[in-house]
Amino acid sequence: GIQVEQSPPDLILQEGANSTLRCNFSDSVNNLQWFHQNPWGQLINLFYIPSGTKQNGRLSATTVATERYSLLYISSSQTTDSGVYFCAVTSYAGGTSYGKLTFGQGTILTVHP
Amino acid sequence: DAEITQSPRHKITETGRQVTLACHQTWNHNNMFWYRQDLGHGLRLIHYSYGVQDTNKGEVSDGYSVSRSNTEDLPLTLESAASSQTSVYFCASARTGGTEAFFGQGTRLTVV
């Protein structure tokens, strides 16, 4: 099946710093989502971005589908950005995989005041 | 607002007992999924359904079953709970077409 690798595994920032999280995937995808898992364990949808670029406030994401990677940018980080960021994809490979997400291992982000 | 809800949020059960976790969505999504989250493994797919009466096994389906009698609900049953099934369980739903999936709040299950 498709492989999803996220980097870095851990990231520690001071409040106000910028960061880039990366997601590499091993096959063509028809869905790519970024999630933030907050300290209470809730999975929050950040972006649905199988290709192109989107922005939402201090967060933006870019997916280059032909090169099989996606980037999540966090600018002017805040302590509330702390948590785990997951990339998840659905591959084109066969009808049986339709709609099923494969998750990366996540990036643990800690933002200090 | 449409939403997806899981119940209970926390449960402790004994080894060997049957346990059912509920998932209910009001988006009228055809596709529903169950995942488990464990340290060191991220989220892994247990079972999924593409519509009423349709169920399919995922990556880690052993010891679990699901049934889909209506669009809104996909209950997950642990037939005989084992300590290895201690985990956080997430339900998700998505429209047909492989579009954006939305997740419930999660259920933390402890098997003692």
Low-confidence runs of chain B: none
Average pLDDT of chain B, rounded to a whole number, is 94
| Radius of gyration of chain A (Å) | 14 Å
Structural class from helices and strands of chain A? mainly beta
H and E order of chain B: EEEEEEEEEEE
Number of helices of chain B: 0
- Radius of gyration of chain B, whole Å: 13 Å
The largest pleated sheet of chain B is described as: 7 strands, mixed
Helix content of chain B: under 10%
Q: Structural class of the helices, strands and pairings of chain B?
A: mainly beta
Strand fraction of chain A equals over 45%
Mean pLDDT of chain A comes to: 93
The helix/strand order of chain A is: EEEEEEEEEEE
**Global geometry of chain A:** globular
What is the straight-line distance between the termini of chain A? 40 Å
Oligomer: heterodimer
Number of helices of chain A: 0
Shape of chain B: globular
Keywords:
A: 113 residues; mainly beta; B: 112 residues; 0% helix
Summarize the entry for a quick read.
Helices cover 0% and strands 58% of the residues of chain A.
Can you give a write-up of this model?
The complex is a heterodimer of chains A (113) and B (112). Helices cover 0% and strands 58% of the residues of chain A. Chain A has 113 residues and is an all-beta fold. In chain A, strands 2, 4, 5, 9, 10 and 11 form a 6-stranded mixed β-sheet that branches. Chain A has a 5-stranded antiparallel β-sheet with strand order 1-3-8-7-6, with no helix packed on it. Chain A is globular and about 45 Å long. Chain B has 112 residues and is an all-beta fold. Helices cover 0% and strands 53% of the residues of chain B. Chain B is built from no helices and 11 strands. In chain B, strands 2, 4, 5, 6, 9, 10 and 11 form a 7-stranded mixed β-sheet that branches. Chain B has a 4-stranded antiparallel β-sheet with strand order 1-3-8-7, with no helix packed on it. The model of chain B has no long low-confidence stretch (mean pLDDT 94).
